[in-house]
Design goal:
Low-confidence stretches: none
Mean pLDDT: 97
Order of helices and strands: HHHEHEHEEHEHHHEHHE
Number of strands: 7
Number of helices: 11
Structural class: alpha/beta
Strand content: 15-25%
């Protein structure tokens, strides 16, 4: 396990991450997709709507075998299995995520459709040509070696298989103020997101093509995510002022990112990337 993977484990193991995600999002770790009329506080509803967007992007027949690369506590995999009849193989590097995912899958009666195990997407051990589709949901930003990971995804997919990635990108440093550059570098360091630091707009699509993927498309859905970032900013603003006052930003990096990424939101895009293995 490399230093970045250990940093990801350390980040998600902090009290702030575990309690924060549990309190606000019931352990799920992705943004919501907001439709016209949705309140910014409808977290549960909009997260399911984001999962619906994922299902629409995958668009494969019932029974398709799909890899969830960074499955967390299994909520995304459970949605796809329950609503679309997919067979999902979920992997994650956090043992407590896998333990909770197994519990939730059992409670939901989905053990015939969803299986999860401890594994890093940096070091896949599946045979070549194993999956009809692979997806990530805001996990690829944690990759140590994004191009290598994409090459692994390519090998694990069947010919004609689909890759779907819901991920962030950002402006180049030269298009941001000095403070914004410093904020992005700081948050990406302490939230263990080295790939996000690399992912200026267009970079991920370029890497997907370099890894051999074709039919690469990028859809910007930032506007449908912004209401949740506004809600997080409201909730985190006062706590963030306190952490700055006592110099504890690194230990409360989610609080910092909620405020600062909202402040510099004009530099961030939330994208749906789709591609095929020829």
């Amino acid at each position: 396990m490399d230093k970045t993977q250990q940093a990801v484990i350390d980040y998600y193991s902090t009290a702030e991450s575990r309690r924060g995600y549990a309190l606000l999002l019931h352990g799920t770790k992705h943004f919501g997709y907001y439709k016209k009329g949705d309140s910014r506080w409808q977290f549960e509803k909009t997260m399911r709507q984001m999962e619906e967007q994922l299902a629409n992007a995958i668009a494969l027949p019932k029974g398709s075998r799909i890899l969830d690369a960074g499955c967390g506590m299994g909520d995304v995999a459970s949605y796809l299995a329950a609503h679309n009849g997919y067979h999902i193989e979920g992997i994650d590097i956090l043992d407590f995520n896998i333990e909770e995912a197994e519990r939730r899958i059992k409670v939901r009666g989905l053990r015939d459709l969803v299986h999860v195990q401890l594994m890093s997407y940096e070091e896949l051990t599946f045979p070549a040509n194993s999956f009809d589709a692979i997806y990530t949901m805001e996990t690829f930003v944690h990759a140590s070696h994004p191009k290598k990971v994409l090459e692994g995804f390519y090998q694990a997919l069947k010919p004609g298989g689909k890759l779907v990635m819901f991920e962030y990108s950002r402006d180049k440093d030269g298009e941001m103020s000095k403070r914004a550059q410093e904020v992005f570098a700081y948050i990406n360091k302490y939230a263990a997101m080295p790939a996000f630091q690399q992912f200026t707009h267009g970079t991920q699509a370029k890497l997907m093509k370099q890894a051999g993927f074709t039919d690469v498309h990028t859809r910007d859905i930032t506007g449908s995510v912004v209401p949740m970032t506004k809600a997080f900013n409201i909730l985190a603003y006062v706590p963030y002022l306190v952490t700055r006052l006592i110099g504890r930003q690194a230990r409360h990096i989610n609080t910092m990112s909620a405020v600062e990424f909202h402040r510099y939101g004009k530099h961030i895009r939330y994208n749906i990337y789709t591609a095929k293995r020829p």
